[in-house]
């Protein structure tokens, strides 16, 4: 039930492991901390990591009179979460489905979750451009308030895949809100010095070449990795970190 959602943000990446779920969850948490009402929909059917990152693994969704009721992070119900992970019996269960079954699950996620009124719905997608993406794009292409954020790491090999994501968005008519570069150098938690382990700036130069807004560089910060599994926001736990500043700026750009 998306008619009560003011704005939808798809979070995409060319590769797995680049920090897409970290960006989705930190964006959702920062929006919540900024006073917005937020939904986070995890459609990574084969590797749903949102329940783990937000420390909601033992939670279940249930059917209400208006559809599936999301799992809420807080008593004021400012951040609701829906993931295939809540429907699996155990964390180790695998979803071994062919395309049509995946398609119908995604359609149910888009149509049957009772989000109520939302300022933002963040959709965490699997890496690449698979059945899940095609279904989402087909269902959201005509939704005017929908756009995509692409997450990449700075290396050339990841950047190549981002080009494919850009092409995919342009072909399917979903506007790209911007590119965010994650794991952009290592930020020492003690002295804040940043060392470019892989390289830096690949996402930024691709954004420039492709005439896409560059949303910022999130460094590798072991403290950010440690927030995963606790459901904590960088903006409240690490307020002076570069990560926190990037997400605050991103929320300002979105609002
Ligand atoms: P994806 O969704 O792209 O597969 P994840 O968000 O699950 O990637 O991130 C992969 C791993 O990298 C996780 O263990 C996560 O905690 C860690 N990670 C992601 N971004 C950062 C970062 N900026 N600093 C430190 N660790 C990070």
TrEMBL record:
Pfam families: ParA (PF10609)
Gene Ontology BP, a term: iron-sulfur cluster assembly
Principal subcellular localization: cytoplasm
Residues where ATP binds: 14-21
Subcellular location: Cytoplasm, Cytoskeleton, Cilium axoneme; Cytoplasm, Cytoskeleton, Microtubule organizing center, Centrosome, Centriole
UniProt-recorded Gene Ontology molecular function terms: 4 iron, 4 sulfur cluster binding; ATP binding; ATP-dependent FeS chaperone activity; metal ion binding
Gene3D superfamilies according to UniProt: P-loop containing nucleotide triphosphate hydrolases (3.40.50.300)
Cofactor(s) listed: [4Fe-4S] cluster
Swiss-Prot/TrEMBL keywords: 4Fe-4S, ATP-binding, Cytoplasm, Iron, Iron-sulfur, Metal-binding, Nucleotide-binding
Domain of life: Eukaryota
Cellular component, GO annotation: axoneme; centriole; cytosol; nucleus
Note accompanying the cofactor annotation: Binds 4 [4Fe-4S] clusters per heterotetramer. Contains two stable clusters in the N-termini of NUBP1 and two labile, bridging clusters between subunits of the NUBP1-NUBP2 heterotetramer.
Residue ranges of coiled coil: none
Residue positions binding [4Fe-4S] cluster: 188, 191
Family designation: Belongs to the Mrp/NBP35 ATP-binding proteins family. NUBP2/CFD1 subfamily.
PANTHER family, sorted: CYTOSOLIC FE-S CLUSTER ASSEMBLY FACTOR NUBP2, NUCLEOTIDE-BINDING PROTEIN NBP35 YEAST -RELATED
Subunit structure: Heterotetramer of 2 NUBP1 and 2 NUBP2 chains. Interacts with KIFC1. Interacts with NUBP1.
Role description: Component of the cytosolic iron-sulfur (Fe/S) protein assembly (CIA) machinery. Required for maturation of extramitochondrial Fe-S proteins. The NUBP1-NUBP2 heterotetramer forms a Fe-S scaffold complex, mediating the de novo assembly of an Fe-S cluster and its transfer to target apoproteins. Negatively regulates cilium formation and structure.
Database matches in HAMAP family: Mrp_NBP35, NUBP2
Annotated protein name in UniProt: Cytosolic Fe-S cluster assembly factor NUBP2 homolog
């Amino acid at each position: 039930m998306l008619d009560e959602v003011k704005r939808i943000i798809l979070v995409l990446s060319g590769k797995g492991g680049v920090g897409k779920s970290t960006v989705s969850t930190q964006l959702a948490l920062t929006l919540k901390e900024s006073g917005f009402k937020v939904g986070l929909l995890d459609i990574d059917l084969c590797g749903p990591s949102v329940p783990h990152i937000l420390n909601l693994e033992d939670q279940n969704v249930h059917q209400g009179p208006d559809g599936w009721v999301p799992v809420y992070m807080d008593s004021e119900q400012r951040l609701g979460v829906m993931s295939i992970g809540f429907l699996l019996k155990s964390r180790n269960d695998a979803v071994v489905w062919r395309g049509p079954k995946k398609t119908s699950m995604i359609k149910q996620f888009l149509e049957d979750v009772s989000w109520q009124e939302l300022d933002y719905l963040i959709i965490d997608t699997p890496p690449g451009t698979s059945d899940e993406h095609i279904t989402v794009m087909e269902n959201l292409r005509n939704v005017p308030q929908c756009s995509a954020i692409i997450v990449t790491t700075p290396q050339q090999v990841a950047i190549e895949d981002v080009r494919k994501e850009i092409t995919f968005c342009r072909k399917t008519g979903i506007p790209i809100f911007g590119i965010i570069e994650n794991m952009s150098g290592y930020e020492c938690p003690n002295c804040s010095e940043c060392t470019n382990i892989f390289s830096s700036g690949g996402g930024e130069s691709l954004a420039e070449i492709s005439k896409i807004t560059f949303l910022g560089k999130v460094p590798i910060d072991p403290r950010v990795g440690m927030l995963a599994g606790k459901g904590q926001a960088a903006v409240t736990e690490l307020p002076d970190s570069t990560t926190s500043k990037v997400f605050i700026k991103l929320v300002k750009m979105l609002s």
